[in-house]
Specification:
Nucleotidyltransferase, domain 5; homodimer
Chain lengths: ~325, ~325
Amino acid sequence: MSYALGIDVGGAKIAASVADSDGKIHHKIKVPTGNAVAQIIEAAHQAVAAASVSWDVITAAGVAIPGIYYAETGQVWAPNIPGWDHIPLRAELEAKLPARVVVDSDRAAYVLGEQWKGIAQGFPDVVFVAVGTGIGAGIITGGKLCRGAGDIAGAIGWFAVDPRKKEIYKQTGCLEAEAAGPAVARRAADLAARVPSRMLEMAGGCLTTITAEMVVEAARQNDEAARQALDQTVAYLAMGLANLVSLLNPQMVVLGGGLMQAGDLLLEPLRREVLEWAQPIAARQVRLELTRLGEDAGLLGAARLALEDHVSG
Amino acid sequence: MSYALGIDVGGAKIAASVADSDGKIHHKIKVPTGNAVAQIIEAAHQAVAAASVSWDVITAAGVAIPGIYYAETGQVWAPNIPGWDHIPLRAELEAKLPARVVVDSDRAAYVLGEQWKGIAQGFPDVVFVAVGTGIGAGIITGGKLCRGAGDIAGAIGWFAVDPRKKEIYKQTGCLEAEAAGPAVARRAADLAARVPSRMLEMAGGCLTTITAEMVVEAARQNDEAARQALDQTVAYLAMGLANLVSLLNPQMVVLGGGLMQAGDLLLEPLRREVLEWAQPIAARQVRLELTRLGEDAGLLGAARLALEDHVSG
């Protein structure tokens, strides 16, 4: 049995745990992100102590970061973490931790985690799609992580899915503007301004404080405006998923991220719409599923990166 | 020096030539497709004879087909060649030719050819996009051909790029319906019905006989309706190319196929529009270029498949 440390760095918190080579997670630790490098080191030591193992048995530490990892320079760029503007994270951590360190993007970690121990177990062609405040994808094709020439492959929030250009498309990308959490809230506010909706009350009478979470809650209570806001979002999101299917012909697309808390409402409509848009053979071959690992996918993927450095190619 | 036979099977003709390991083509042969298997064998023998080499020095024969090659079963499906509905082409050819045979899709051959000896030479992340009566892509990511779970990766004619569904999208895919050769002709006919255009005369007074070639010719003569038809097509095509750029972050996208005969008119507008739509870093990193190999890319790619069987891995 070999062990690796998996660390998933988010904008708000850092999760860490020791995982064994069977993919079992031993005692998950969470700390606030704060001064991120110091907190990673803190979380790493806590996780190793909590797992009751010694650093000697840790093969390596895998770190998933919410941004871009530049494989050639070892640098990291993560817009949501203050100061992480091309910092040599790998070198900094290796100087302070008694283990080899492997870094990659959270997208990469999530798809690796899903393929290792999640619902996509063993499939050589898998895409993980995170839909939250943003939209991004981790891609494994032919068994290998797809990184792209500049390590930023998977920026599907920028998929062009509507020729009627809007100003916002230039800031977030077209698909993200139409299908991420903020788009759900924006649509719901537009609708709630025109038809009666319980969302207005949920938001304390203020349209601009309607959140995607409120929309989902209202939709569960059959609020018509909320349902419509979700339907209109599904219409765009399905176009993006269909594009992944037609281009990559994967066995599975795994959906995660904040908006997929409403996955039970969204999955069937998404499947129907993907069948309408995608290349028909690829559309019939692909399985569209919700993550069952949730945030553990990131921890497992980070550990997997550490255990099998070569997987990251 | 080692040699391979490259054979590019099209709906109308079969091209064949011996290529050496430096990527030099020796005497290209063309025969009509007709009874395709018999004609491949005929073309193969002619090409070997024309190159003045013996079959003994031929490492293998690579065959590019206009359809799907199922790597697992060795079968071929090609809708434009009568009878090629899951035929065991590789086995049939190996039984009749004195060489090992390797088969793959023309998309795969074209991108391999461009990466081996074309403008994308040496790049590990390259997409070849053919825009003609249809639209399809060959993809190399991380140095490896992307095939997908069912060997049909690259079906970008099915990219969803306009949420306003049309009936035709279900037959050809959305992007192909809006951006392939027939779309150019259809748009031009619509426009020529409303404004004076020399295209009507070129088409013998009949709107429905306007072809994409006529549109391109008229556009070169500054015909306003023809220009507009191309502009509207570029708007959609750029969305599809931008989607490749955002998703795969390639060093280069190479454009070929019939419509790219008008590449000099289309390339700059396409580049501008891709910058508008794609993920900004990826959009600045990518080079969008026209093929300079033309149809030789298929022959070279087929030979490359034969020389380095493992590349197709």
